[in-house]
Design goal:
The chain has 185 residues and is an all-alpha fold. It is built from eight helices and no strands. The protein has helices at residues 3-26, 30-33, 35-111, 114-122, 126-135, 138-147, 150-162, 168-171. It is rod-shaped, with a radius of gyration of 40 Å.
Length: 185
């Protein structure tokens, strides 16, 4: 029996006593003086006990089904938490792969002649172009920007300046340090 039922038991017993006493009184004073009245009182008491047992059975069933539902909810929550952890792990792997590919792209564009890199970067999505130029060391990025059309160079320079993942310290970092990965989502 659950803790709730255990706590209710004294209250149910007191209620049963009160009801039994009330029904015995209702059966009349004859219940104590005549055999017929005594039998009615006894039947009333047995009916009351039976109703109380039925009521207790119903309460126990409800508590049991509530406990089962709670166990199912807790089990489902554990499954969902495990799924969230798995998704987070996959997202972390994807972020690492994105950072690795971004580093490769940065290296590729940094090694290209500035005019060729500018021609390719000019056709890229502005956000990707800004991310690449923001991660290329400043002298090479300056050569590439100089080879771009003026309007495109202005827009990309503004995008690089606004990007929070490209603080001045990261752009001036030594070749040993790696800047923070770029999130494309």
């Amino acid at each position: 029996m659950s803790g709730v039922a255990e706590r209710r038991r004294p209250a149910l017993a007191a209620l049963a006593c009160a009801l039994f006493a009330g029904e015995a009184i209702a059966a009349g004073a004859a219940a104590s003086t005549s055999p017929e009245g005594h039998a009615r009182g006894e039947r009333a008491a047995l009916e009351l006990v039976e109703r109380l047992r039925e009521r207790e059975r119903v309460v126990a069933e409800r508590e049991s089904s509530g406990a089962q539902a709670l166990a199912e909810v807790e089990s489902r929550m554990a499954e969902l938490e495990a799924l969230r952890v798995a998704i987070d792990a996959r997202l972390d792997r994807l972020d690492a792969l994105e950072a690795e590919w971004m580093e490769r792209l940065v290296e590729i564009y940094a090694r290209m002649p500035a005019e060729r890199a500018a021609a390719v970067i000019d056709g890229l999505d502005p956000e990707l172009a800004a991310a690449l130029l923001g991660r290329i060391r400043a002298p090479k990025a300056a050569e590439i920007l100089a080879a771009l059309p003026v309007e495109r160079a202005v827009r990309l320079s503004e995008a690089i300046a606004r990007a929070p993942q490209f603080p001045a310290a990261a752009r001036e970092a030594s070749a040993d340090e790696k800047p923070a990965p770029v999130r494309w989502r």
